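Run: sequence + beta-D-fructofuranose -> complex structure.
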Amino acid sequence: MVSLTTYVSIALLGFAGLVRSYYTEPYRPQFHFSPQQNWMNDPNGLVYFNGTYHLFYQYNPNGTTWGFMSWGHAISTDLVHWKHLPVALECESDSNGNVLQMFFSGSAVVDVDNTSGFAVRVGTDRHGHAIYSKPMIAIYTSNYPTAHNQSNGAVIRAGQQSQSIAYSNDNGLTWTQYEGNPVIYGPPPQYADQYQQFRDPFVFWHEPTSKWIMIASLAMEHILLFYSSDNLTNWTLESQFGPANARFGQWECPSIFPLYLDGDMDTEKWVLLMGINPGGVITASGTQYIVGSFNGTTFVPDPTNVYDPTQVPANSTVFQDFEEISSTFEQIGWNSTGDFAGLGPQNASTVQVWNIEGYLGTGVLTTYLFGDIATGTITSPTFNITKNYISFLIAGGYYPYNPATAGTPQDNQVSFSLIVGGQVVYSQTGTDTEDLVWRSWDVTGYIGQQAYFLVTDVNTGPFAHLSVDEIIFSNSPKNEANWFDFGPDLYAAATYNGLSVPDRTVIGWMNNWGYGQNIPTSPWRSAMSIPRNLALKTINNIVKLVQQPVQELSSLYTSKLYSHWFSSLPSGETTINVPAPYNTQMKISVTFQRGSGTKFGVILRSNATDTQETVIGYDFLGQSVFVDRFNAGDNSFVTWQPNPFPGRYVATLATSGPITLNIFLDWSSVEVFDGTGQVAITSQIFPLDDSAMVKLFSVGGTTKNLAVSVNGIKSSWT
Ligand code: FRU
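>> structure
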């Protein structure tokens, strides 16, 4: 029987086909998943079963900002075309309108062996044996805003977060909450006070121990808890992991999964993936991974994958650790101007630097002196670059150096920069936290040259200060974390249950808590990243998690719209012709080698005067991929300071051979992957409609052996 809703949706589809108005609002993603309307955050319950990919997601059925959190639902057979389904788990309120239960992030499994006992009889086979359903189980965090007593006797405190389950015997369409919920009432006794910060269960079937395993986060403690279960209802605490690596803000949405190393089915490793907010690689939300082993009870990280913040690489030289707190900058050979004239390093315990786990010693350079109002510069003595990396600790507000405004009245930087040959070649600002974090610059390309550091604080606004410490020179980088993506817009990444090991597929929320609720889209807010296939590759003796868009995306590609070989691309800009509408929705691939120039790249969503542009490229001297969205379009939706939206994002990619960048442009995003998959940079952009030119550029000389090819990407929604 065809239901009324089916008729209605067929009618609507027909209508949409006629007027071509479906999914064509300004900025509407054409080949990314976005809800028809309203707010979305994390992907939840990713499970593949019987040829269908389920995508549940954090959803507010009532508005375009976070609230009334429920699980939205969509399905796909190819990870490319999605069909919207009704809300799966809807936020519950009492008769006075008090919210009793929100459905926070979690995962889903299909209980094929009916360990849970939730299966129901759905028929009889020809031998007269009963046929049972395969229950789909959602494991999620019950976030209870209001204190109340449940009918099953559970006493719920206001703000409590507990782990609960629900099951569906019709492939995720309708759901029943387990009557014994929550299945994990609260954190273990030693963390009892964390009952409001205990969430985001990821569950999977662990074949070797024949158990269900859950990993959940104590968000503020930076601790992940491992539980096991035979039946998904009774859970036993097995072990805990953390803090490790990026350990600031909150740890959210953890998951763990196996992958083969270098495609070798005999070498399995396990990957921990988690969100960190704030404290991500740019500001606010970020995603890190740790490779190690897992035996069904305990995760042990590979020693090469954990970074002790108090240890620096072997044979590093300390250039400046700012320990001389009774000296002036002049006395330690530095120079200071403005409010910093006559001053020197400060005692870290008396200034605005917190969480000093990673901090070595007592003194620190800071521009927080009489508050944020201090302005001026602090300059290092000149030195000769002799080692491959410069690393340092940095904390403070996010006010990046923007070459277009530096030195003008619009300049608002609070930054720490490296100057070589009179040019800023690297610059780092704070990540909007007071926590000192490690950052490294690859300076291999500048070895033998004279350089100096420049701290510039021209800003008196909120958070307009910077702290810098422990500047070291070394031949390997001082890592803080393995970042999964080097852009600002990839969070709460989750992977599919139900696929084979080599098919591990991840989807991330393509947004950032730093500004996500303000992005200028309507009637929906937020999209998911392109689904990406994951693998582990040994690159320069380090095991890296690599990623590429899923193969299925190519079903949306048009035939080649542009393809050209340049034995030598001249210095300057070269416009290429990509016909509309595909100049705003395309895959552009470039493979190239260094010529006499220092940078090569692609400019997208550009106007003729380059006042609007998204710049993607490779820096041969810094050996790094970059995405610059300083002038990408609208960022007026951020009305507070620091504005976390504009920026330039850099990821090291050391290589001597040809480099490939695959760039995926949609109406309000760009995702960049290098050919090896070790660099991903995901960034939202909100350009004007008529900024749609495509240009190539080479800086300071030529770029050699450049192959460019462009495919349009058709809409997956029409
Ligand atoms: C991450 C997160 C999760 C939580 C969910 C609530 O983005 O904060 O920790 O479960 O969002 O919507």
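>> summary
The helical segments are 4-19. Residues 4-19 form the longest helix (16 residues).
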